[in-house]
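Try this one yourself first.
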């Protein structure tokens, strides 16, 4: 398997050939009206961050519109309650480069944003993102460098929005199963049994 490893961009380009013209046309340095509409309709995105000692990619989700378009070069995103590992936020403090990929259920295309992030604790800004009277602890401001859409091939191939292709939930490992496998003696069954009340209670 390791006998045929590519080692140069020249080898890679010779294998794949020239980019499809539309793949270059679609990349712009600021939000167009369609790109803005896509972000405002998206209830979910993945956030990739980088730091000298590691990488992180984590999910972000809330009701559609939770990512606020400040203008065509800036996004504002609340950091909702989580597990307090704050890996992404630590990375942003050390290296502001971020990549975001937005998904809309049922939509084949994805939208990608690359930029530089900072973390704001401005009281008025935090309060403007409050839900049930609970503001986020920080708001991530993303200065956009580039934005472009990803074609539908990956989502079509994966059947991500096709329920008939989904595996049965009861055949998959639960959060408790994964925790029990990671730590001897962990009561995974108890953890799972509490999820129904724990998760709704701790969303915000």
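Now uncover the answer:
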């Amino acid at each position: 398997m390791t006998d045929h490893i590519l080692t140069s961009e020249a080898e890679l380009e010779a294998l794949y050939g020239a980019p499809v013209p539309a793949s270059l046309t679609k990349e712009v340095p600021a939000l167009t009206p369609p790109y803005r509409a896509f972000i405002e309709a998206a209830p979910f995105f993945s956030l990739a961050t980088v730091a000298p000692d590691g990488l992180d990619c984590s999910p972000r989700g809330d009701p559609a519109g939770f990512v606020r378009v400040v203008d065509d070069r800036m996004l504002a995103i609340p950091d909702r309650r989580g597990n307090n590992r704050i890996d992404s936020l630590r990375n942003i403090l050390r290296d502001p480069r971020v990549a975001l990929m937005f998904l809309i259920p049922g939509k084949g295309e994805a939208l990608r944003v690359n930029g530089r992030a900072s973390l704001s604790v401005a009281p008025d800004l935090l309060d403007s993102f409050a839900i049930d009277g609970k503001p986020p602890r920080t708001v991530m401001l993303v200065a956009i460098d580039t934005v472009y859409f990803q074609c539908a091939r990956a989502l079509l191939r994966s059947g991500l929005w096709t329920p008939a292709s989904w595996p049965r939930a009861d055949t998959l490992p639960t959060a408790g199963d994964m925790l029990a496998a990671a730590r001897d003696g962990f009561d995974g069954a108890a953890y799972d049994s509490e999820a129904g009340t724990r998760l709704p209670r701790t969303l915000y």
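Discussion: The chain has a mean pLDDT of 96. The two ends are 47 Å apart (CA to CA).
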